[in-house]
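From the methods appendix. Each design record in this collection lists the tokenized structure first, followed by the designed amino acid sequence. Records were kept in a plain field format so they could be parsed without special tools. The example shown here is representative of the layout used throughout.

RECORD:
FOLD TOKENS (203 positions):
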């Protein structure tokens, strides 16, 4: 097996828990400052739902830009023209957040299949090859449905499979969201600048 096929990956291995905004989690409270507008979907005006947040101290494998130590993943939990939820990433410096939003806005309607249970992580670090790919929620590695490539629409650089949300977890403890045909929602980022437009690929 070629060495360049070997990619580091972190299986997040979610388990039900009771995280705070100071923890990495799926479906828990987001670290969101009181003086910043909560993100909302351009297509339907509904507030996004805080889906995942990952701290650098827990997951240094993520490509945090300078000055950020937290990445937050938001979903608009309605279907869009491209099937699946809309996805927004926020890279944040958690040390600059002092006063938190009192209550997270809730959308007036949601597709239940995009709403996760509340989970913390028991991460498993491993090396992934395209011939043997995990379908669970993970950082890095390969696209579970088979390798695909996308170019950054801003600079043309080949985007990198960075975060994948899985319908099925290898542990069997699914977080009860469903993407595509029981697949994964894969988030591709530009290696030059993670704030360039992202690509979401459901397989
Ligand atoms: Zn939307
Ligand atoms: Zn780019």
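DESIGN:
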């Amino acid at each position: 097996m070629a060495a360049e096929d070997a990619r580091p990956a972190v299986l997040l291995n979610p388990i039900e828990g009771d995280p705070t905004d100071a923890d990495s989690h799926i479906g828990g409270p987001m670290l969101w400052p009181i003086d910043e507008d909560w993100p909302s979907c351009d297509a339907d005006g509904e507030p996004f739902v805080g889906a995942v947040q990952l701290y650098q101290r827990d997951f240094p494998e993520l490509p945090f830009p300078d000055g950020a130590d937290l990445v937050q993943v938001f979903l608009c939990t309605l279907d869009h023209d491209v099937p699946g939820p809309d996805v927004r990433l926020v890279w944040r410096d958690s040390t600059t957040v002092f006063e938190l939003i009192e209550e997270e806005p809730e959308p007036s309607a949601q597709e239940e299949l995009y709403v996760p249970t509340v989970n913390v992580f028991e991460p498993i670090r491993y090396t992934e090859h395209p011939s043997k790919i995990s379908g669970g929620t993970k950082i890095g590695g390969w696209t579970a449905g088979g390798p695909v490539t996308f170019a950054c629409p801003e600079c043309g650089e080949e985007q990198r499979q960075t975060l994948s949300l899985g319908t099925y977890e290898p542990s069997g403890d699914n977080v009860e969201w469903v993407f595509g045909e029981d697949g994964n929602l894969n988030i591709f980022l530009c290696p030059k600048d993670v704030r360039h437009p992202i690509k979401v690929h459901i397989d």
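APPENDIX NOTE: The radius of gyration is 16 Å.
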